[in-house]
Specification:
By secondary structure, the chain is α/β, with parallel strands linked by helices. It has two domains: 317 residues, TIM Barrel (Alpha-Beta Barrel), CATH 3.20.20; 60 residues. Helix content is 46%, strand content 9%. The chain is built from 15 helices and ten strands. An eight-stranded parallel β-sheet has the order 8-6-4-3-2-1-10-9. Strands 5-7 form a two-stranded antiparallel ribbon. Helix 5 runs parallel beside helix 6 and helix 12 packs antiparallel against helix 15. The model has no long low-confidence stretch (mean pLDDT 97).
Length: 389
């Protein structure tokens, strides 16, 4: 493999304990890999050149661990971080695995479950901050329904808002330097999950008391499984100043949540995503929320992790070549050509501009007849990705 694509800590590539630590269990099959300890996972990530490791509270500390067990796990985990130089940029709470959350956490119909979810999240926030996290992700995997007879969606939204307002205030009261990132998903494990797309999350954030500290964590698979264009959602989040974190993986459109290696399915979509992130100067974590194939042993899991990181590095270089390709850039310039005739109409509204624009003459037929060479631009992009130019 070419050394220039091998991961370096400065790349900000991160993985979750639940990703490289996935033991290969699925709804139809038993585990195929032994369970690694959190510390062992950190050493694995250090070996493959990752920058960071992220975790749910119970990925690190089992939900039923004793105080003594918790202390020992944290001691071993902190030692692994120190030994490898791997850091913890993000943490989150598991509010979906335990049977208590079968009908949701913050939106549960049971007030005791809602209170327990807040308690669990506050403790998990404390743990994340202790280990260095500066971003805290909320994925509401159980915040939804299978039948609309079960919950009032308006009331569910109010409950979710109340929970996030409470937790924002908790973070501020503790003096933590922490931002929240909300993660959308349309379905699975619930039939219909509330706030199912990044756009829905962005709208919801504006209703919060402390919206300035809340952004989004869009995930490739979660938009593509619904047939949506992930790049467009990322661009909207960036434009609103709300792209606090991002989950990279891959996914066949319309399937269940597959969490494939980044770039493994939709190479062109992955390319334009990387190009966008690099073009706008996104400098946050590049988190791979993906899993190795169930066929792999842990050597294969290392191949998977390295493959995710190499793919991003390769596509980053392809984006640089795209910008440097004279023929591609000539097409881009021609497509976006501006003869200056509409300069007087640009910018903020004024009554004079509106009057001038209303009286302007446009050649509608000529505009409709103009060809836009998108076919050639797309073909040249594909040829660049395929390495033939």
């Amino acid at each position: 493999m070419s050394d220039k694509y091998n991961p370096q800590p400065g790349n900000r590539f991160t993985f979750g304990l639940w990703t490289v630590g996935n033991i290969g269990r699925d709804p139809f099959g038993e585990p195929v890999r032994k369970q690694l300890t959190p510390a062992e996972i950190v050493y694995l990530l250090g070996e493959v050149g990752a920058y960071g490791v992220n975790f749910h509270d119970n990925d690190l500390i089992p939900i039923d661990a004793t105080p003594a067990q918790s202390a020992q796990i944290k001691k071993e985990f902190k030692k692994a971080l120190a030994d490898t130089g791997v850091v913890v940029p993000m943490a989150t709470t598991n509010l979906f695995s335990d049977p208590a959350f079968k009908d949701g956490a913050f939106t549960s119909n049971d007030p005791n479950v809602r209170a327990y979810a807040l308690q669990k999240t506050m403790n998990a926030i404390d743990l994340g901050v202790e280990l260095g996290a500066s971003t805290y992700v909320f994925w509401g995997g159980r915040e939804g329904v299978e039948t609309d007879a079960s919950k009032d969606p308006l009331e569910a939204g109010k409950r979710f808002r109340e929970a996030l307002n409470f937790l924002c205030s908790y973070v501020k009261d503790q003096g933590y330097d922490l931002r929240f990132a909300l993660e959308a998903k349309p379905n699975e494990p619930r039939g219909d999950i509330y706030l199912s797309t990044t756009g829905a999350m962005l709208g919801f954030i504006e209703t919060l008391e402390h919206s300035e500290m809340v952004g989004v964590n869009p995930e490739v698979a979660h938009e593509q499984m619904a047939g949506l264009n992930f790049l467009h959602h990322v661009a909207q989040a960036w434009d609103m100043g709300k792209l606090f974190h991002i989950d990279l993986n891959d996914q066949a459109f319309g399937r269940y949540d597959q969490d494939f290696r980044f770039g493994a399915v939709n190479l062109k979509s992955a390319f334009f995503l990387v190009k966008f992130l690099e073009d706008v100067g996104y400098d946050g974590s590049l988190h791979f929320d993906a899993h190795a194939y169930r066929t792999e042993d842990y050597e294969g899991v290392k191949d998977f992790a390295i493959g995710c990181m190499r793919m991003y590095a390769i596509l980053k270089e392809k984006a640089e070549r795209w910008h440097a390709d004279a023929e591609i850039q000539a097409l881009v310039a021609a497509i976006n050509a501006d003869d200056g005739k509409t300069d007087a109409f640009k910018g903020a509204y004024s009554a004079d501009k509106a009057a001038a624009l209303k009286s302007a003459s446009f050649d509608r037929v000529a505009m409709g007849a103009r060809g836009l060479p998108y076919e050639r631009l797309d073909q040249l992009t594909l040829e660049l990705l395929m390495g033939v130019r």
